[in-house]
Write a structure and sequence with these properties.
alpha+beta, 7-stranded antiparallel beta sheet, 3-stranded antiparallel beta sheet, 3 helices, 27% helix, elongated
């Protein structure tokens, strides 16, 4: 009985010992956590009929006719600014700006419109936040209704995947809102 009891205890010990190992589970999918520095803004002015503040970490390049690109190399994103003078064509400029935004309805989950009015600076416009896998996540237009019209939109150099570009999109959206809120006509 002693040998049988010893063999049974050893067998029981092996069963208990072998059943205590951890099961291998696949790791869940995740995205890289991205933290961006606090934005510091600098005044931008040149010969064009407007001024604004922009993120000092971004790189601005002048294009033709007072259009600009503001690039964020680390985020692989660019804000495109387009200026048009108003010459009895305000309705057409407004339609074109709104059409550009609503072309993203196919891929967008939601488009949030935020009107902007600054009576003191005579800046009136609309800021659009586009949620979902659209090519652009933020756009705006601004005008004084009589002489100036400015549009802006951000594009990422990556396949639209809202979950992966969301931190960068949120950061640049804040910069675009700041640009719009500091816009002044000359």
């Amino acid at each position: 009985m002693g040998v049988q009891c010893s063999v049974a205890l050893v067998f029981l010990g092996l069963v208990l010992f072998s059943s205590c190992k951890n099961d291998v589970l696949p790791k869940p999918s995740s995205y890289l956590r991205l933290d961006y520095p606090m934005a510091e803004y600098a005044h931008f002015e040149n010969q064009c009929p407007f001024t604004f503040e922009m993120n000092s970490k971004a790189i601005i390049k002048g294009e033709k006719d007072c259009g600009f690109t503001i690039t964020y190399p680390k985020m692989k994103a660019t804000i495109y600014l387009t200026y048009k003078p108003v010459n009895s064509n305000l309705n057409k400029l407004l339609r074109d700006a709104q059409k550009l935004t609503f072309e993203h309805v196919i891929k967008a989950d939601d488009i949030l419109e935020q009107p902007y009015l600054n009576q003191q600076k005579k800046v009136y416009g609309m800021f659009y936040q586009v949620d979902g896998n659209a090519a652009t996540n933020s756009q705006f237009y601004a005008t004084d209704s009589t002489r100036h019209f400015l549009t802006a939109s951000v594009y990422f150099y990556a396949k639209p995947n809202f979950d992966s570009v969301m931190p960068a999109a949120r950061y640049i959206k804040n910069d675009m809102q700041h640009l719009m809120e500091t816009l002044e006509w000359k």
